[in-house]
Amino acid sequence: MVVLAGSPAVDHIPLLRSPDPGDNFSGMPVVDLSSPGAPRAIADACERFGFFKLVNHGVPADTMDRLESEAVRFFSLPQADKDRSGPAYPFGYGSKRIGLNGDMGWLEYLLLAVDAASLSAACAVPSCALFRAALNEYIAAVRKVAVRVMEAMAEGLGIAPVDALSAMVTAEGSDQVFRVNHYPPCHALQGLGCSATGFGEHTDPQLISVLRSNGTSGLQIALQNGQWVSVPSDRDAFFVNVGDSLQVLTNGRFKSVKHRVVANSLKSRVSMIYFGGPAMTQRIAPLPQLLGAGEQSLYKDFTWGEYKKAAYNSRLGDNRLAHFHR
Ligand SMILES: C=C1C[C@]23C[C@@]1(O)CC[C@H]2[C@@]12CCC[C@@](C)(C(=O)O1)[C@H]2[C@@H]3C(=O)O
Ligand SMILES: O=C(O)CCC(=O)C(=O)O
Question: What is the pTM (predicted TM-score) of this model?
Answer without folding.
Answer: 0.96
